[in-house]
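User: Can you predict the 3D structure of TetR family transcriptional regulator? Sequence below.
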Amino acid sequence: MTAKQAATVDRLGRAAVDVLSREGFSGLTIRMVAAEAGVGAATAYTYFSSKEHLVAEVFWRRLASTPVPPDDSPDPIERVVGVLRHIALLVADEPELAGAVTTALLGKDPDVEHLRFRIGREIHQRLTSALGAQGDSDIVESLEQLYAGALVRAGMGYASYTEIAARLEASARLLLT
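Assistant: Sure. Here are the predicted structure tokens for TetR family transcriptional regulator:
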């Protein structure tokens, strides 16, 4: 991707967040986002096939660009809690984006599939790293399922992402002790 293309994708991502905050996911369209970003709809569609694809990309970029704050704790439970809390709070202050991310990632859009895989791989790597030598594949998978279930609960409106972060912490501690 050229620098100009990357700048266009960045503008589209920022515009998507702005449009989501005003219109919600149901009102979001690629055309609206393109207009907000100052690009043609055809240009936007060359990068994103659907609004789900666009929202998933926004979340992926946010996750990938915000590494977990360093935690030098010798306790793997504290490190895991830090990872889960950090991920849960990535969109906590943006309820429309948070709900849109849940909808986009749980949908069947084929263009979201590779992003869902990348997001899952990143979360897996962060949890594995946090667990260190004490982690095994069953524990990591259980933590991943814990996070995925929390994402669904937050996306369905059962709790805010801040509340979900606290619930993830409590649940991870139960699982790991």
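The chain is about 75% helix and 0% strand. The chain has two domains: 3-48, 67-176.
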